[in-house]
Amino acid sequence: MHFYFERYIKVLFLSLVKIRPSFTIRKIYEEIQCQLVSELVYHEMQTERMERLQTLLCSSQAMKMSHSHRL
Fold this sequence. Notes:
Elements (H helix, E strand, L loop, with lengths): L1 H18 L5 H46 L1
Helix pairs in contact: 1-2
C-alpha cells in the first residue's frame, strides 16, 4: 500500500507540473494533499465494504450450515 501511494504521488506531481506550469510548489503540494485524502478515503471505504461483505458471507455460510444440521 505504501509503495502504491509513493508512486501515486510521483505521477500526480509530474502530471501537475506538466499540466499547470504556473502552479507554485505550494499549490502543487496542496493539490497533492487533496488528491491523497480523497484516494485514502476511497481505499478506506473499499476496505470496509470488503470486510462487511466477508462478514456477511461468513454469517450466511454459518446459517446455512446450522440449517443443514437441523435437517
